[in-house]
Write a structure and sequence with these properties.
4-stranded antiparallel sheet, 5-stranded mixed sheet, elongated, 26% strand, 15 strands, 9 helices
C-alpha cells in the first residue's frame, strides 16, 4: 500500500513505547504540556491579569498564587497529540521528493524515535480524527489543526486573562482561556520548529488524567527506523499487526532517506 501524499498523518515514537504500550493496546496517549519539547509550552507562562480598575480594586487575591494555579490547571488540563504532515510543497515527482514526506525527516528520527531505532506510524487523517472525536468527545473541548509558524508576536494577548474571568473558578477560567486563545497558545510555534510541519489533536479536560485514542482502524503504515532490529520486526509481523497495515524499513543512501517495503513473512 503506497503512502498517499497529504492524506497521511505521522507520529514518531521510541522502540520501547511502541513495543510495550502502543502495539499491545492499539492506543496513543495524549501528552500534557509539561512533557512537550518546546519550552514555550513546557515551562510555566508569565501570565498577567487585566480588567477595569473597579473590578481590579475590589478583587481580593494573591496575584502570584493565582498565576501559579492557572499554570497548574493548564498543564494538567491541556492534552495534545503531536503529529507530522508532509511538507506543504511536497511534490512526489520533484527531484528532491525524498525529503518531503512526513516520515522522511532524519532530525525527527533522531529526536523523537530514539536515534533512528524507533518507528514512525502513519495514519489515515480522516479516520484518526474520527477516532479522536469518538474516544474523547464526551471528555471536554476537542480542537485539531495544523501548527502555524511565525516569530512575530500574536495580536490577541494570549498570556493575559481578565480578572473577571476568575469568577467561574481557576480551572474553568484556565480552560476557557485556553479554548479562546488556542490558535496562539497551541497552534502557533516559532519558525525554528517549522521543519516538523506539525498537526495537533488537542483536548481540554481537567477532570480526568490520561487521555487515549484508539488507533487500529486509522493505522495504515509502520515505518521502522534504520536501526530497528530485524528480529523484532519479524516478531511483530507474525503475531501482532492487522493485515491492512503496510510495513516499511527506512534506509539512507548517501544521507538521503529511502523507504523499502517489508514483505510479510520474510525471514
Amino acid at each position: 500500500m503506497p503512502i498517499e501524499p497529504q492524506r497521511t498523518l505521522f507520529h514518531y515514537t521510541t522502540q520501547s513505547a511502541f513495543l510495550a504500550y502502543i502495539l499491545p493496546s492499539r492506543r496513543l496517549r495524549l501528552s500534557e504540556l509539561a512533557r512537550l519539547n518546546d519550552p514555550r509550552e513546557s515551562m510555566d507562562w508569565s501570565l498577567s491579569l487585566s480588567d477595569d480598575a473597579e473590578v481590579a480594586s475590589e478583587a481580593k487575591f494573591d496575584f502570584f498564587e493565582i498565576v501559579a494555579q492557572l499554570n497548574r490547571a493548564m498543564r494538567s488540563g491541556v492534552k495534545i497529540l503531536c503529529l507530522t504532515q508532509d511538507d506543504p510543497d511536497y511534490d512526489p515527482d520533484s527531484i528532491n521528493w525524498q525529503f518531503g514526506p512526513g516520515y522522511a525527516h532524519p532530525s525527527m528520527w533522531d529526536r523523537y524515535a530514539q536515534g533512528h531505532s524507533g518507528v514512525c506510524l502513519g495514519f489515515d487523517r480522516i479516520k484518526l480524527i474520527e477516532s479522536f472525536k469518538t474516544c474523547l468527545g464526551e471528555r471536554g473541548t476537542l480542537l485539531h489543526a495544523p501548527v502555524r509558524y511565525s516569530d512575530s508576536a500574536p495580536g490577541d494577548m494570549p498570556f493575559t486573562l481578565a480578572t473577571s474571568a476568575l469568577s467561574v473558578g481557576i480551572e474553568r477560567a484556565a480552560l476557557d482561556h485556553a479554548a479562546a486563545r488556542a490558535n496562539s497558545l497551541f497552534f502557533r510555534k516559532y519558525r525554528d520548529w517549522s521543519p516538523e510541519n506539525e498537526y495537533r489533536l488537542l483536548l481540554l479536560d481537567t477532570e480526568h488524567d490520561d487521555a487515549y485514542i484508539e488507533i487500529e482502524a486509522a493505522l495504515t503504515h509502520i515505518v521502522f527506523g534504520a536501526n530497528f532490529p530485524h528480529d523484532a520486526i519479524r516478531m511483530i509481523d507474525r503475531a501482532l499487526l492487522p493485515g491492512h497495515v503496510a510495513m516499511h524499513m527506512m534506509r539512507y543512501s548517501n544521507g538521503a532517506p529511502q523507504l523499502f517495503p517489508w514483505i510479510r513473512g520474510q525471514m
